[in-house]
Write a structure and sequence with these properties.
The complex is a heterodimer of chains A (119) and B (1146).
Chain A: H1 2-5, E1 28-31, E2 36-41, H2 51-65, E3 71-76, H3 84-91, H4 94-102, H5 104-114
Parallel strand pairs in A: 2-3
Antiparallel strand pairs in A: 1-2
Helix pairs in contact in A: 2-3, 2-5
Chain B: H1 2-5, H2 7-15, H3 21-36, H4 42-54, H5 58-74, H6 82-95, H7 102-113, H8 124-137, H9 145-161, H10 163-167, H11 171-181, H12 187-203, H13 210-223, H14 242-253, H15 260-271, H16 276-293, H17 295-298, H18 302-315, H19 320-327, H20 338-353, H21 355-364, H22 366-375, H23 386-405, H24 407-425, E1 428-430, E2 436-438, H25 450-469, H26 476-481, H27 483-505, H28 513-527, H29 538-554, H30 559-571, H31 576-585, H32 595-606, H33 610-634, H34 637-661, H35 665-681, H36 691-707, H37 711-727, H38 759-774, H39 784-795, H40 800-812, H41 828-837, E3 841-842, E4 860-861, H42 863-868, H43 874-894, H44 899-912, H45 926-950, H46 969-987, H47 991-1007, H48 1010-1015, H49 1017-1031, H50 1038-1053, H51 1058-1063, H52 1065-1076, H53 1082-1095, H54 1100-1103, H55 1107-1117, H56 1123-1137
Antiparallel strand pairs in B: 1-2, 3-4
The chains are: A alpha+beta (119), B mainly alpha (1146).
Chain lengths: 119, 1146
């Protein structure tokens, strides 16, 4: 699982999320039987405006990488972001995610982050 | 003269700076051509150019002078008279003052000064004038890079070619050079400046000369470059490497002892820097300077250098213990990095240059002594703290290097450390006067001290290398006088015992690995002293060997120890003891040592040297024969197993080694002949359950042995084999038979398998076939016609080796056109005649295979016809097809026309299953009904025959067995067969036939080199896709399917296939989607998905319509049971999803 998202690039830096320690292996919870995944990520700074974009990247990447039977929850690690609740709500709202993905600018940004850095 | 008239034009076009550079170059070429061929003299040219050279227009003057200089450069090998040269050089010297037109002047001076003396060169006086003008007028550092380079080249040239004339300039010259090179930054120029300094130093070696006063200044300029470090690595395409520059600077540093007061402190200072590069460079420079500056100047630095070196060695952040495991016994236990390596090189040089001082430093060094004391207080390797382990290794190396330097050094080191170590180990006793004597009563009961033992082995290694490297030490007289030799002599025996006791005490646990390493290594070192060296006696050598062997025989449970001992043995040069012991291993009956290990030991030892190999091979053969005879006579199962292993060892390990070693033909041919003898002598034959395996192993060994013999011995073997064959009652071989005759095989019942043969017969015929397979083309085969007949009949019983032998025979026989009958009395044509026109089957008589000559064609059937339909007997048909395939392969390899007929036969077999009655046989329609059920298997074997035809076989018909192989035969076959297959596919309607055709096609395509397939890509791809989808319905065909898929992926990846792929993108993708879920083979799924990824790189417009389909099908693969497939699926979805990210949801 970690393998899938470690290579995602940060929207503001040329580093991967793994290198920035935004996501770690421990922060991912997988329950194969119930087809449930929960990813908890840690934004680099408390006011990181890109938290939602990072979350969106994670969601899109997992959407593409996992069989459709999985339900994915993405959360900001508690106490690491100023507007934690708002971000969480935004990320796990199906409608809002779908709407965000209709936005071409946002989608281009997401795609840039997901561009494969491996061979 | 026409060209001459254009001269002005040429000059114009060069001088005119608005012309393109190619035009300018062309005009220079044209003028140079005129000058070279004496159409134009230099004098005329100069006169013609007069205005351009002297005009007050700066740009035109510069171009004019440059033109003249360029021309002179081109004329470097044209003889010129002295007057011309004098006037030209005076002109250019003059112009050096003209800074606006400097480049031409520089280039001109350079061109003239580089000339060789035999074609007219600049005189010394002129050269001095150039130098003076240069020093007065040229401000090097204010010029551009290119001009600076020219300036330096002139300097270099002056110093190189006119040393006397410039030397007289003295201080001015040195001063001028200092000014010129100061602050230079361009790597190309730096290469020159460093070289200039080097030559300059050679020019003024005198310690009171002009250089002496400037040495400080000059070194200030040089010193700031050290260590060489590029700040702009990706700058212009500079072709100067850091290493080159560093070496040039090193030469400049060490060019004169005058630099010593400045250089050594700088280097020592940089050595303590934290930059690894600086350290390595300083060590290198120090080594170099040490030699150049000389002993007098360096003595005062020895101490400082020693401390720095010691620091470098101790501080290198290495984990020494690892080296023990990784490097095994190859080299001293230190995993080196560059710093350490250089440090030891330097240390060695210091010791060589100044042995007295440096050795007393080493011997008296506090650290070393302290570490020796502390480390030796730990008993086992694992008790030593990491830090000390590290230091222990370092000291080991230091002692090694210092003892190895010379005999006197060795004496010093031994005197100060050897007895101490012996005391620690408890191997010595002191007598009343305090002398150290070996303690022969020592009982090796407890664990010996690891550190001391390790240091001992390092010291021993140093002695050995010292002895090996020097001739005089080997002589008795010298060695007896040296104190270290005496010490070694008195203790060598005890040391040997000590090392072996370590091994005895060891168990195969990690904790003692290091002990085992050092023990084995110590023994190995003791055994590798040269034989004539006295202190280590011969008996010690033999004892060491015995120790190793006893380990190999008994201690097979201690894997590590066993492996190491074997490796050590391999590295030694052994005598007869080892070999005999090893050979006797094969006959030992108790199964203490596992047989695999025995064989490993045997083959490892066997491949080390020629003499050894001979003995080992001999022993192995004896063992093989002993076991085989057990098998033959008693049917002993255990011996059969052993024999199989022995034979495999023989053919896989030893035979390849023999090939490399050369002249072993006798051995090989004797082996083959002996196998035949043995079979001949054992009439009663009872091979039990392991029969097939044993037979295969024997056949392989036979083939390989025969294959590597020369014609003569092959002939002998074949003759022997033939005599055994003809003595078999089952095979009646009549020598005088008409060409159209057949073999009369009486008593042979026609049954469909080989059961009717006695076991012995089967062995005989199989081995005979393998011998035939392996012979060279020129080898004489007796009674070749009879043999052909024999093989033909055997082949029909499903005996594949017989078919392969036939294939090899038709491959190697010489055709008629050759004229001279070389060795066989049967040409290729004859053989083919026999093969295809002999009646093998009498359709009227289903009894014994018997043929009455003269009966009409109607009831006889040759091989070809048998393939097309044997009445009532599909098994026979299958056998015939298989046999024909091998014969066809033999013909195909040599490029014979006949293979086309054979291919057509297979094709007809394929098609006949469709019920199209094109069989040219006169059998009744009764059989047709039966054929319908039967034919699928016939068709299948016909399809597989294409695989036999196309694939490379390990068993026969390859280079090893001297097959006659034409280059590109596969391509040729491919291009001739493809159209036929394709067209017949279009005609056939029945699904069965089609699937068989696809199968045949799949074989052909997947065995053809990819390049050939690519050239036909347009035609192939549709068929390829069809066959993929047809084949994917059967799970039995997964291997063919996979190889076909690989061909497809090859086409996808190749540039040349791209166009066709784009055209067929839709069908390819559809086909791949079908394979994504292929249940029978994981790699098929993986490759299919990889192909889809490759497809996503095609033009978007073309593949976009397929996007959702691909994504949907790959989604299933995300849940694949295999991780590799899931991974590829993710990659694939990512690739396809991102070609149009707008619609993420699908």
């Amino acid at each position: 699982m970690f393998y899938h998202i470690r290579d995602i690039k940060d929207p503001e830096h040329p580093y991967s999320l793994e290198e920035l320690k935004v996501i770690t292996e421990d922060a991912i919870e997988v329950d194969d039987k119930r087809s449930y995944v929960r990813v908890t990520f840690t934004p680099t700074v408390e006011h990181c405006s890109m938290a939602t974009v990072i979350g969106l990247c994670l969601r899109v990447k997992l959407l593409r990488s996992l069989p459709s039977r999985y339900k994915v929850d993405i959360k900001v690690a508690p106490g690491t972001h100023a507007t934690e609740a708002a971000v969480n709500k935004q990320l796990n709202d199906k409608e809002r995610v779908a709407a965000a993905l209709e936005n071409p600018n946002l989608l281009d940004m997401v795609d840039e982050c997901l561009a494969p850095s491996y061979g | 003269m026409a060209q001459l008239s254009q001269l002005t034009q040429y000059i114009e076009s060069y001088v005119d700076s608005s012309r393109s550079s190619t035009q300018q170059a062309a005009s220079v070429d044209a003028i140079a051509y005129l000058l070279k061929n004496d159409i134009l003299t230099l004098e005329t040219l100069v006169r013609e150019m007069g205005m351009y050279l002297t005009t007050t227009d700066n740009i035109i003057r510069a171009r004019g002078i440059l033109l003249l200089a360029e021309l002179l450069t081109r004329l470097a090998s044209k003889p010129l008279d002295n007057v011309t040269i004098h006037s030209l050089i005076s002109f250019f010297t003059d112009r050096l003052a003209d800074w606006r037109a400097l480049r031409g002047a520089l280039l001109g001076c350079l061109a003239l000064m580089k000339r060789k003396s035999n074609i007219g060169r600049v005189t010394d006086n002129d050269a001095r004038a150039v130098a003076q003008a240069y020093l007065e007028n040229v401000q090097v550092q204010s010029l551009g890079q290119h001009d600076r380079k020219l300036c330096f080249e002139i300097l270099e040239c002056l110093l190189d070619h006119y040393p006397e004339s410039v030397a007289s300039l003295g201080d001015d010259l040195v001063y001028g050079i200092c000014g010129a090179i100061d602050g230079e930054k361009d790597p190309r120029c730096l290469m020159l400046t460093f070289h200039i300094v080097e030559i300059l130093a050679r020019l003024f070696p005198d310690p009171s000369g002009p250089l002496a006063s400037f040495a400080g200044d000059l070194f200030d300029i040089l010193g700031c470059y050290f260590p060489i470090h590029f700040t702009h690595p990706q700058g212009e395409d500079v072709d100067v490497k850091r290493d080159d520059l560093s070496r040039a600077l090193m030469l400049a540093f060490s060019s004169t002892p005058l630099f010593e007061p400045f250089a050594i402190p700088l280097l020592l200072e940089k050595l303590s820097s934290s930059l690894p590069l600086a350290k390595v460079d300083s060590l290198k420079y120090l080594s170099n300077c040490l030699l150049k500056y000389g002993d007098d100047r360096m003595t005062k630095h020895v101490e400082a250098i020693w401390f720095s070196v010691k620091d470098a060695i101790f501080c290198s952040e290495q984990e020494p213990m690892l080296s023990l495991a990784s490097e095994l016994l190859d080299h001293v236990g230190f995993q080196e990095n560059e710093i350490v390596t250089e440090a030891f090189i330097l240390l060695q040089k210091v010791i060589l240059e100044n042995s007295g001082l440096s050795l007393s430093l080493i011997v008296g060094d506090k650290d070393i002594n302290m570490i020796v004391n502390t480390v030796t207080s730990f008993r086992s390797y694992n008790d030593i703290p990491l830090q000390s382990k590290h230091k222990l290794c370092a000291i080991g190396r230091i002692l090694y290097v210092s003892a190895k330097a010379s005999i006197t050094c060795c004496n010093r080191v031994f005197e100060s450390f050897f007895f101490r170590l012996m005391d620690t180990l408890g191997l010595s006793v002191r007598n009343s006067s305090g002398d150290c004597l070996p303690n022969y009563d020592y009982v090796f009961s407890e664990r010996l001290n690891f550190g001391a033992l390790y240091l001992c082995s390092e010291l021993l290694a140093a002695c050995r290398d010292l002895v090996v490297g020097s001739e005089e030490l080997k002589s008795k007289s010298v060695s007896a006088q040296e104190s270290w030799c005496c010490m070694l002599h008195s203790f060598s025996c005890l040391l040997m015992k000590a090392f072996s006791s370590v091994l005895d005490a060891s168990t195969d646990k990690d904790a003692y690995e290091a002990d085992i390493y050092s023990g084995v290594k110590g023994l190995q070192i003791l055994a590798t002293f040269p034989g004539e060296f006295l202190p280590i006696s011969k008996s010690i050598f033999e004892n060491v060997l015995l120790t190793f062997i006893s380990i190999i025989i008994e201690d097979f449970n201690k894997t590590l120890l066993w492996k190491l001992a074997l490796k050590a043995l391999k590295a030694l040069s052994y005598n007869y003891i080892v070999v005999e012991k090893i050979v006797s291993l094969m006959f030992l009956d108790d199964f203490g040592l596992p047989f695999q290990l025995r064989l490993e030991a045997i083959s490892d030892i066997g491949t080390t040297g020629l003499n050894v190999m001979l003995k080992i091979v001999q022993g192995l053969e004896d063992a093989i024969f002993a076991n085989l005879s057990e098998v033959y006579v008693h049917g002993n199962l255990k011996s059969a197993k052993i024999a199989v292993q022995l034979l495999e060892c023989y053919s896989n390990k030893l035979l390849p080694g023999i090939h490399g070693a050369g002249d072993f033909e006798d051995v090989l041919s004797r082996f083959a002949v002996n196998i035949w003898n043995q079979i001949e002598n054992s009439m009663a034959f009872s091979v039990g359950a392991q029969e097939n395996e044993l037979l295969n192993a024997t056949m392989t060994a036979m083939k390989l042995a025969v294959g590597s013999c020369s014609e003569g011995s092959q002939g002998k073997i074949i003759k022997k084999a033939y005599s055994v064959l003809s003595s078999c009652p089952s095979f009646t071989l009549k020598e005088s038979m008409p060409i159209t005759g057949t073999v009369q095989l009486e008593g042979l019942q026609h049954t469909q398998d080989l059961e009717c043969f006695s076991c012995r017969d089967k062995w005989v015929i199989s081995l005979f076939a393998s011998a035939i397979i392996a012979v060279r083309p020129q080898t004489h085969i007796p009674n070749i016609r009879v043999v052909l007949h024999l093989f033909m009949t055997i082949l029909l019983k499903g005996h594949v080796p017989a078919a392969q032998a036939l294939g090899s025979m038709v491959n190697k026989l010489c055709p008629k056109s050759n004229g001279v009958e070389i060795s066989s009395n049967c040409t290729l044509e004859d053989a083919l005649d026999i093969i295809f026109n002999t009646s093998l089957w009498d359709s009227h008589n289903h009894g014994p295979l018997k043929r009455c000559s003269g009966i009409g064609v109607d009831n006889e059937m040759g091989l070809a016809n048998l393939c097309l339909g044997a009445p009532n007997c599909q098994l026979l048909q299958v056998c015939a097809i298989e046999g024909l395939a091998w014969i066809g392969k033999g013909l195909l390899l040599r490029g014979h026309e006949k293979f086309k007929d054979i291919t057509m036969i297979f094709l007809r077999c394929l098609l006949s299953s469709g019920g199209i009655d094109n069989l040219p046989l006169n059998h009744g329609s009764l059989e047709n009904n039966q054929e319908q059920d039967v034919l699928p298997s016939v068709a299948k074997s016909a399809a597989d025959a294409f695989h036999v035809l196309m694939s490379d076989s390990e068993i026969c018909l390859n280079k090893k067995f001297h097959a006659n192989i034409r280059p590109l035969y596969k391509q040729r076959f491919f291009s001739s067969v493809l159209p036929i297959l394709v067209s017949s596919m279009a005609e056939s309607r029945l699904s069965n036939t089609r699937s068989m055709l696809y199968r045949a096609l799949a074989h052909v395509i997947s065995d053809t080199p990819l390049i050939a397939v690519l050239s036909e890509a347009k035609k192939i791809i549709p068929i390829l896709l069809d066959s993929l989808s047809v084949l994917s319905t059967y799970n039995l065909d997964k291997d063919i399917l996979y190889s076909l898929l690989l061909v497809l992926s090859g086409i996808l990846m190749d540039k040349n296939g791209q166009e066709t792929v784009v055209e067929n993108a839709h069908s390819i993708i559809n086909c791949l989607i079908g394979l994504v879920g292929y249940p029978h083979m994981m790699v098929v799924r993986e490759t299919a998905i990889q192909c889809l990824v490759a497809m996503s790189r095609l033009p978007h417009a073309r593949i976009y319509p397929m996007r959702t389909q691909v994504l949907r099908s790959v989604q299933k693969a995300l849940d694949d049971p295999k991780r590799a497939v899931r991974h590829e699926a993710v990659r694939c979805r990512q690739a396809w999803a991102s070609i149009a990210s707008r619609s993420l949801h699908f």
